[in-house]
């Protein structure tokens, strides 16, 4: 019969959320363009776009969670979802490769034509840089600790220890929030502002986008914690948590490269703030 399922794949029902998400993304980007050009009603368009995206995240992700709890995510489906997450993280790696590439380009070949750069790195306009062994080192330790706590949560889940899973998630979320707080404070006391030269622009773009990824990862883990309290996840079916853990480890590794390349090597020989 046509209605019988004789395969391991999950065939999705028609859904409105992809369409809503597409129009919300268009509205959001349009609002950003209007805002950057100081156009009238920019905030209204931007607000509608953000509201639409949040609604899409909530509605679409809720359906995915319901599908998982209903048993639609068979081992074959979970395998393909893992492939998808691996490809997503790979695309994120290439995103940061672009920032590292620009940083090395600016650092190894500083412009001699610009008075701001002066043929040296950090540029002549940068009188002081952040001490890598102060706040940046503290944030490095925070993220390394968060990597161990999310691993603790993962192993607890695999062993059926739900209390250990909750404690590990709580610790990781708090450490992620602490990292964000320290980074915001660091930006507030930084001896150079955004823009004006290649050093400050590349510094804030690279570290700022990483900070945004930490924020997204923290939200990801908060959702996992809420699902844990609802009784979701089993040792055999927990892709939602596994994806969050992979993403968090990716954020940790990127930060290690940022700490070494941007903070330590990038400011070598400069005066520390």
What does this structure look like?
There is one protein chain. By secondary structure, the protein is mainly α. It has 2 domains: 1-72, Helix Hairpins (Orthogonal Bundle); 73-265, Cytochrome c oxidase, subunit III, four-helix bundle (Four Helix Bundle (Hemerythrin (Met), subunit A), Up-down Bundle). It has 7 helices and no strands. It has helices spanning 17-36, 42-70, 75-108, 135-158, 162-189, 198-229, 239-265. The radius of gyration is 22 Å and the shape is globular. The model has no long low-confidence stretch (mean pLDDT 91).
Feature tags:
Helix Hairpins; 2 domains; 273 residues; 7 helices; globular; mainly alpha; Four Helix Bundle (Hemerythrin (Met), subunit A); single chain
Number of helices: 7
User: End-to-end span in angstroms?
Assistant: 73 Å
**How large is the radius of gyration?**
22 Å
- The ordered string of helix (H) and strand (E) elements is HHHHHHH
CATH class of the largest domain: Mainly Alpha
Share of helical residues: over 70%
Mean pLDDT: 91
**Biggest pleated-sheet summary:** none
The CATH homology group name of the largest domain: Cytochrome c oxidase, subunit III, four-helix bundle
Strand portion, in percent? under 5%
């Amino acid at each position: 019969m046509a209605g019988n399922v004789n395969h391991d794949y999950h065939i999705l029902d028609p859904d409105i959320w992809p369409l809503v998400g597409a129009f919300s993304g268009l509205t959001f980007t349009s609002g950003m363009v209007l805002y950057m050009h100081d156009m009238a009603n920019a905030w209204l368009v931007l607000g509608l776009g953000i509201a639409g995206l949040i609604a899409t995240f909530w509605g679409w992700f809720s359906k995915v969670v319901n599908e998982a709890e209903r048993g639609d995510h068979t081992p074959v489906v979970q395998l393909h979802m893992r492939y998808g997450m691996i490809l997503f993280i790979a695309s994120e790696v290439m995103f940061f490769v672009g920032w590292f590439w620009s940083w090395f380009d600016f650092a190894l070949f500083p412009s001699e034509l610009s008075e701001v750069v002066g043929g040296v790195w950090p540029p002549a306009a940068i009188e002081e840089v952040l001490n890598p062994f102060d706040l940046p080192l503290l944030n490095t330790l925070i993220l390394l600790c968060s990597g161990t706590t999310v691993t603790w949560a993962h192993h607890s889940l695999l062993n059926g220890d739900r209390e250990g899973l909750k404690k590990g998630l709580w610790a990781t979320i708090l450490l992620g929030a602490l990292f964000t707080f320290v980074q915001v404070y660091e930006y507030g006391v930084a001896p150079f502002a955004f823009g004006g030269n290649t050093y400050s622009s590349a510094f804030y773009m690279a570290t700022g986008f990483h900070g945004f990824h930490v924020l997204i990862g923290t939200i990801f883990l908060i959702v996992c914690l809420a699902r844990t309290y609802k009784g979701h996840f089993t040792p055999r079916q927990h892709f939602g948590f596994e994806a969050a853990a992979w993403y968090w480890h990716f954020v940790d590794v990127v930060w290690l490269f940022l700490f070494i390349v941007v903070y330590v090597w990038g400011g070598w020989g400069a005066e520390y703030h």
